[in-house]
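Here we describe the complex-level prediction in full. Unlike the single-chain runs in Section 2.1, the three entities below were treated as one system.
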Amino acid sequence: MKIISGRMGAAALGVSLAFGAAAHAADIGIMSIQAMSGPYAFAGVSYANGIKLAVEQAEADHYLGDTNIKLQMEDNAGDKNQAINLANQAVRPDGPIIVLGPTTTVDTLAVAPVFNDNKTPLLSLATSSLSLETGPWIFNTEQNAGDLLPVLTHYLLTKTDLRKIAIIYDRSSDGYLEQRDTIAKTVKEGGGEIVASEAVTGTDTNFLPLVTKMMGVDIDAIYLAVTPEQGANLMIQFRQAGLPDKVHFMGGITLASPSIMEMAGQAAEGTYVIADYIAGVDRPVNKAFEEAFQKKFNAPVDQFAAVGYTMGKAALKAIKDAGAEPTREKVRDALLNIGSVPSPLGNGSWTHKDRHPHYGAIVTMIKDGKLSAIE
Amino acid sequence: MISFLSSYQSLADQILIYSVLAMSQCLVMRAGLFSLAPTAFAGIGAYTMAVLTTAHGVNPVLAIVCGVMLATLVAAAMALATSRLRGVFQAVATLALVQVMVTVGLGWESVTRGALGINGIPKVATTGWLLLVVALATWLLWTIGRYSIGRAFDLIREDETVAVSLGISVMRYHRFAMILSGLLGGLAGALYAANSHAIQPSEFGFSMIVAGLTMAVLGGHKSVWGALLGAAILISLPELFRVFAEYRSVFQGVLLMLVIIFLPNGIVDSLLELAHERKVRRALPSGDGGNIDTKARAT
Amino acid sequence: MLLQQLLNGVVVGSVYAIFALGFTLLFGVNNILNMAHGSVFMWGAFAGLAAVTYFGPSFPLAVVVGMLAGGLLSVLLDIVAFRPLRRRKGADMSALLSSLGANLVLLSLAQNLSNTKVMRYPFGIFPIVNFQVFGLRIQLLQLVIPLICIVMVAALVFLLYRTGLGRRIRSVAFSESTSRLLGINSEWVNAQVFFMSGALAGLAGVLIGIAFNSVHYHMGEPFLLKAFVVIILGGLGSIPGALVAGVVIGTIETLTISYVSSAAADGITFAVLFLIILIRPTGLFGKASTVMRVQRQ
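The structure predicted for the assembly as a whole is:
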């Protein structure tokens, strides 16, 4: 497998594919567009590593037979315009057969029209179903709030006595807004009550006014639909302001990052997190993935790596199912009918219905600085 | 081969669009007006166009025109409000305008969809049209610059006291410069929206101010070609420097500082000055040595 | 709750004031808007963090290192970005642009160094002690910050009006060429002013980093933007003005967030700026002599 990075790589790939088309007919191109630098690198780099592992394993096992897999890793630095430029490069006829990414929902929504108009399959990392509305060439890898959160609220409303819920959300991304709306809906339907709903922006750090304001309200639990750093910051500032221990925090997959516990320390104890991946699950595919990842990257696995790995495997399976002479159209059709991909996520099997992914979720709580599954 | 070139089309589009913003910035700098408002005007133009086409189904071209008009109106209001101010205060007032616009964009969620921005804007500003618009704008600026307005701007910038003593109303010319920069800025913004499918409020803030100023400084603000060159350099830099990946911005910043310190008039202006000097020197009979100040310029 | 929010406003306002003090000092003496001030603030926070990471959590250490780093960086900034421009006509605009370039450099160096991660000061950097007074819950840090601010303002005023150095600074502020004629080494004075400005920024950075649990390469930008409002409201070049305006702005912002919405806070702050420029551009404490430089007829 050749990993080509950057602009030089794109030019080289283009030229070599153009001139060497006859000799290398058995080459398949996969491109990954991730935020490997910039504010979302905490996710982007992990996603990329997961993808790299999946492709490397496929090459080692000769999963696609004699075919050479050219994996092209691109960095859009979390910048929408750069993502669009990269997308325009990718959809050229001699470009990759499938593209994975970009890292954020915002970037995905910006590039989705490009891929759809140019009939190139995109396996995205959007956490909102808005991306799917662009057209039939766009697929989501991650479940969105509508799939994950009902599991959490169901647990809360049936197994605990937490009823009065407050929501704090980051208003700069559809993903967080969707979390807010889903939590509000499922809590109300399940007999709970939303007592407060406050917006923050991704770069805020001064939460004194917000914290003081919410301390005046009777709350059982606070749902945080924000980035991990902000989540940790909010937890600390709340506890410092005197929020009692009996008030729990809750969050979705963005709060399932290992860095949360490191950053928030004691303040994070007792937080409920609905995760689509948790390390240490006793399942063969999980154990194999964690071992291989640790060996290759010498870094702890997180859910982003698990998602990236699943994404890579799904793409490879679609390419394989597309037959001996895969085209973008055949790969897309294969992806549509992909069935089940064994994955370390959720219940172990990644599937989708109408491009809408499903793989279950795990309710966890932060205890002694670690995420442990409760159900 | 053609497809290889067309992938760099989006780059060319961005250069053309940003050059209009640069023209707006160059114009105010040429007049000695310390305005950072082109970014605000761009935001107004972009959002007007985007909201009209996505939420109200207005014809995209008409929406662009509306965007330009609204930006020009706001510029006129700004012109009246700030024409009495000087230097620092102009800068701060226009900076405040930009920030207010960003906040409106973020807060007026019912219209602008807040921080999410607006998606799915029809892409009508394709390369061909952009070239046409940029050519027209360049021609417009060139015409203005050649005649009395351009000369007045230059004089006001160089020495305000002399300009006043010649009976030039500084306030009037500054107002004109502000309004015209509003037109160009709004145009740049509307084209930006019409070319990039999606916009967000944060794009029309501090970073765009820096981009506009950088382009104007790099290219130079006296000649019309300065804006184009400045835009070309600024947009191509991340692509050229991709090899250095993480240190792109460092190079951009260093470049800006070097140009300000050593080539304060910008690249195009400095080159033109050099060419002029050579012309003057050649026209002089040999042996005049250092008696004549070859740096004297007609304007 | 109103009282608690007012306290919040005073705390954050004090930091705005400290930051603006350095900013307004540079403007008063050199007539330049240093757009890289926010990056100096951020690097001060970074330096303090590095110091306590190596030597253990100690608040005084963080503060001292942060101030030193900010001061030295600011002097370096002067040498590289401002000094070459000083003799030139139209230096104001060029200086602003040059500082923008410097800002970009400082920002991206920090971005690369920190890998864009959001870092925090280690637990235990400042004792968590709470007081219950008049139904208010006050953290020790929330008392210390305004105190530090007042001390800084007092020290600065003392320095400017009661010491030889202060006289020299005021002389250079009035007219650099005249000062040189009088035998004052204006470059050395400038260096010292830049050092003080940077030290104040660095101090603000460390305080914010600790108070809000966040040290991030982008932390300076919102402060820089608010600093504009503060120095205009307070009066360009005015020290007491920076203090009063800082606290006022901090309070307005906090009250807006709690009673209106967080989205409105920035907008209201800048609308205030607009009004001030239109109605009374010299600000609260601006001197009449500034009027001549502000308006034209």
